[in-house]
Amino acid sequence: MPTIMVKIFEGRSDELKREYAKALTEVSTQVLGCDAGAVDVIFEDVKKSDWATGGVMWSERD
């Protein structure tokens, strides 16, 4: 507890993901009162061609 699923566009660096996972873990321990070792963060990289917002593919917005 908890498991946090993060879906982001592909191409983000490992360092950026590491920093974000650390920040999510810190906030989770503060708000939920759990140990850092209990927080799982799972990143899923998504292609812009597989994501649409408002009916428009992100790959078409570039």
From TrEMBL:
GO molecular function annotation = isomerase activity
Function, in words: Catalyzes the ketonization of 2-hydroxymuconate stereoselectively to yield 2-oxo-3-hexenedioate.
Give its E.C. classification number.
5.3.2.6
- Similarity annotation: Belongs to the 4-oxalocrotonate tautomerase family.
- InterPro entries, alphabetized: 4-OT-like_dom, Tautomerase/MIF_sf
Q: What is this protein called?
A: 2-hydroxymuconate tautomerase
Q: Which residues form the 4-oxalocrotonate tautomerase-like domain?
A: 2-60
Q: Which UniProt keywords apply?
A: Isomerase
Q: Which reaction does it catalyse?
A: (2Z,4E)-2-hydroxyhexa-2,4-dienedioate = (3E)-2-oxohex-3-enedioate
Class in the EC hierarchy, top level: isomerase
**Subunit details for this protein?**
Homohexamer.
UniProt-listed PANTHER family: BSL4019 PROTEIN (PTHR35530:SF2), TAUTOMERASE-RELATED (PTHR35530)
Which organism encodes this protein?
Pseudomonas xionganensis
